[in-house]
Amino acid sequence: MKMVREVVDTMVLFEKSSVNPLVVTCSRGTFRVNRVIKMWKERRSLRECFIYLCQVEGRENPVELRWDIESNKWFIEKL
Predict the structure, then answer these.
(1) What is the mean pLDDT of the chain?
(2) HEC string for the chain
(3) Burial 24-39 (b: 16+ CB within 10 A, else e)
(4) How close are the terminal C-alpha atoms of the chain, in Å?
(5) Which of the four pLDDT bands, split at 50, 70 and 90, describes residue 79?
């Protein structure tokens, strides 16, 4: 299976010094984030990004959310 990336609209919940996504809206519908499994910062395509591995409601496998800091855009990576 190949990975598909798309731009998403995201409602973000801020907690002290961290940013955690709460609700993700994309072409497949609206997903509620149950918990953030792992978060890390890395460079992709010469841009600083925060990567969130999230468990979402209604899906068995986690999804990867990427926040491009410079352009302030969110992307979802899904199988």
Answers:
(1) 83
(2) CCCEEEEEEEEEEEECCEEEEEEEEECCEEEEEEEEEEEEEEEECCEEEEEEEEEECCCCCCEEEEEECCCCEEEEEEC
(3) bebeeeebebeebeeb
(4) 7
(5) very low
